[in-house]
Specification:
The protein is α/β, with parallel strands linked by helices. It has a single domain, classed as 4-Layer Sandwich (Purple Acid Phosphatase, chain A, domain 2). Helix content is 30%, strand content 16%. The chain contains 8 helices and 9 strands. A hairpin with a 5-residue loop joins strand 8 and strand 9. The radius of gyration is 17 Å and the shape is globular. The relative contact order is 0.19.
């Protein structure tokens, strides 16, 4: 019997993600893993995370990926449509090095094309998946096409009537593990699964979370990366 999991905001934490997939979830090709975006930046191996996801897909694993704001910003910066999506030179150099390059212009095309093809939302029989959220004040048709909110919103008032009664799963806003667990235990209508894996100095965060969409078990893996330069959130 296949299982369904959702996780988000991997942010270059390859060791942690691999441990989640292989040792915690024991993911099988028949299972479905939904990833809600932000695979790059902040952590040490953005390129490694993308390569691993693409390998899983090539090997027949059902890994379904959304685009997050960090993928969008990397694409925009590469196309010179926006500022570089890094807070510090150390973070920039770490991200580029993980792709084997030193210049943004030299990012490998296969990764750029993969990110550009990612959808912004996915709909399951019982859940709607998006990276950040929706502007529920908009008409339904407009809400589902509001790209900025889907990638960037940090505050919204969940309205199940606008999602045909389905629950909403999202990421984007790092949230203490205890708070995420409480919302999962309550089977809340909207649940943010970003437990701030990349913020390795912050004891309330620094975990990668994956929710079993059928049993409601929340799987948590603490950051397993070698030390890398990032400020405590």
């Amino acid at each position: 019997m296949s299982r369904r999991f959702a996780a988000t905001d991997l942010h270059g934490c390859l060791r942690t993600f691999r441990y989640l997939v292989e040792q915690e979830l024991h993911l099988r090709p028949a299972d479905h893993l939904y990833l809600l975006g932000d695979y790059v930046n902040k952590g040490p191996s953005s390129g490694g995370v993308l390569k691993y996801i693409m390998q899983l897909q090539d090997f027949g694993y059902q890994v379904h990926c959304l685009r997050g704001n960090h993928e969008q910003e990397l694409l925009d910066a590469h196309a010179a449509r926006g500022a570089e999506p890094w807070r510090t030179p150390a973070e920039r150099d770490m991200t580029l090095a993980s792709f084997g390059v030193t210049r943004l212009a030299d990012l490998p095309t296969r990764y750029l094309d993969w990110m550009a093809a990612l959808p912004l939302q996915l709909e399951l029989p019982d859940f709607v998946l998006v990276h950040a959220g929706y502007n529920f004040a908009l008409p339904v048709a407009d809400m589902r096409h509001d790209t900025h909110s889907m990638l960037y919103t940090k505050h919204f008032v969940y309205d199940p009537s606008r999602l045909a009664g389905k629950r909403l799963l999202h990421g984007h806003v790092p949230t203490p593990v205890a708070e995420v667990q409480a919302r999962v235990n309550a089977r809340a209508g909207a649940i943010g699964l970003d437990t701030g894996c990349a913020y390795r100095h912050n004891a309330e965060l620094r975990h990668l979370a994956a929710l079993n969409l059928d049993t409601w078990q929340l799987h948590l893996v603490e950051n397993r990366e070698a030390p890398y330069p990032i400020a405590e959130r």
